[in-house]
Structure formats: C-alpha cells, structure tokens
Amino acid sequence: MWKLVYGSVPGTSHVESGLPCQDFCEAKVVDTTLIAACADGAGSAEYSHFGSRAAVDCFMEIAVGDTIPTSDQIFAWVEAARDRLLEEAVKKDTTPRQLACTFLAVLAGSDWSAFVQIGDGAIVFDGPDGYELAFWPDIGEYANATRFLSDDDYRDHLKVNIINRNLSEIAVMTDGLQMLALDFAGARVHDRFFSPLFNTVRNGLNEEALKTSLLGFMDSKRVNERTDDDKTLLLATQMTADVSQELPDSAA
Q1: Fewer beta carbons within 10 Å, N or C terminal of the chain?
Q2: Is residue 218 within 8 Å of residue 229, measured between CB atoms?
Q3: Distance (Å, rounded) from C-alpha 167 to C-alpha 126?
Q4: Rounded to an integer, what distance in angstroms lies between the CA atom of residue 45 and that of residue 101?
Q5: pTM of the entire structure?
Q6: Which of 187, 171, 198, 231 is nearest to 21 (CA)?
Q7: Is the pLDDT of residue 11 over 50?
Q8: Strand 231-237's sheet: what is its strand order?
Q9: Residue 250: what pLDDT?
Q10: Is 212 exposed, middle or buried (0-12, 13-18, 19+ CB in 10 A)?
Q11: Rounded distance, CA 212 to CA 11, Å?
C-alpha cells in the first residue's frame, strides 16, 4: 500500500508581494494504485492559481488506475484537464494565458507506472542505481521560461512515459525545489536530498505530523535562502516502519 504526504507553501517573494500560492497538488490511493497531479501557475499570469487547481482537479476526477493506461488514454485525460482550464478562463473573461500552469502527474500500480509532464518541475523515482528522473525539466529557451498546459502547442511539449516496473518511492515537485533536488551540471538527481525525506515518510506514524513537518521543511530558512518561489512536494513510498521522525532540515 502506498503511503504519502504532500503539500504546498507560498514562496517568500509571493508573501512579500501579497500574491497567493500558485501551486496546487492532489493525490489519492485507489485500491493499490497511486494517482497524483501537481501544477505550478505561471508567476506572470494573474489567475494562474485558478488554472493550477482546475487542471489538477479535473485530472484527479477522471484518471483511473485499475489497469495500466495507454498513452491515448493519458493524452485524453490531459486534454480534459486543459479544457477545464480553458473553461475557467471563459468564466473569468480572460485569456488562457492568464491561467497558465505547468502540469505533472503520476499513476503507479503494482508493477507499472505512468508519468506525465509539461513544463518544469520533476518526477523522481527509485531505480537500481539510485533515484531517477522521469523527464528532465523543460526550462525553455530563456531563463525562467517554460511550457504551459494553456499553450496552443502544448501537445508538442507534453511528455508521457509508461514503464513496467514495481516502484517503491516516488516524488513529484514543482520548480521551486528543483534547484535543490537536481544536479543541473551533471543532469542527475541529488540522492542525498531525497533519501532522508523518503526515510522519514517510511518511518512516520502520524500523517498530520508528517504533513506539518513537510510544510515546515519547505518553508524553512535553509530552503528559503535558496529559493523564493512557491514550493510543492509529494512523497510516496510503499515501505512502512514503526519509528516516527520529523523531516530533516539537513536535507536542504
């Protein structure tokens, strides 16, 4: 059975400017399948926090994991999520660009996993030689640029990967944490960032305490000194233990 903890915190720059947290994340376990989706609203888009929520809510409503999905099914679910975002733009009498958001999703069954991504952020999972990335973040041609679900050509940049493997640990994060979690020079994952976090989730007993600890970690001084953006992190593990811990500040 999957055990998970997730949450979002506003970046210090958003707090100072009075902007809402533009990230949104939801996750659930249906029978033995993990289904999760996260979105990061564009900082320059006035209603991007609504776009993030609309896309994630829709995907979570319609995505199913009773059997391994096909690529066509996943494309249809993402298309529906985008349609929901466009509907929200019409309700607010604005352009889709004002609800722009990146989008990441995971479905993980007993012996398969499907990964979905458009834009930056990262999906990380355990592999035989350490943690692996589903896709390298799409950081665009210019600094602080990426691709969004609201883009007309979003399908050209939508990445889907389905693997036939049993995974024990999965993380999904928005770009607010990717500079801490990824080695951009070496194009690889920082194992030392994830190992203590997964260990805490695996050993923690109280879900509310774990979430409080996760939010505290993301909003800690050491993390905020390195990023002022909104931050979202989902951690899921299929391993259990009996010792409760707090998320370690040293992980940053």
Answers
A1: N
A2: no
A3: 6
A4: 9
A5: 0.92
A6: 231
A7: yes
A8: 3-9, 231-237, 169-173, 122-127, 130-133
A9: 45
A10: middle
A11: 17
Q: Quick one: 121 exposed, middle or buried, by C-beta within 10 A (0-12, 13-18, 19+)?
A: buried
CB atoms inside a 10 Å sphere around CB 31: 9
Tens digit of each residue's pLDDT (9 = 90 or more) over 213-234: 999 999 999 999 999 999 999 9
Do 22 and 49 meet the contact criterion of CB atoms below 8 Å apart?
yes
Secondary structure of 167-231 in HEC code, one letter for each residue: CCEEEEECCCCHHHHEECCCCEECHHHHHHHHHHHHHCCCHHHHHHHHHHHHCCHHHHCCCCCCE
Tokens at residue 148, please?
């969004």
Q: In whole angstroms, what is the distance from residue 116 CA to residue 235 CA? A: 16
pLDDT of residue 143: 53
Share of the chain above pLDDT 90, in %: 83
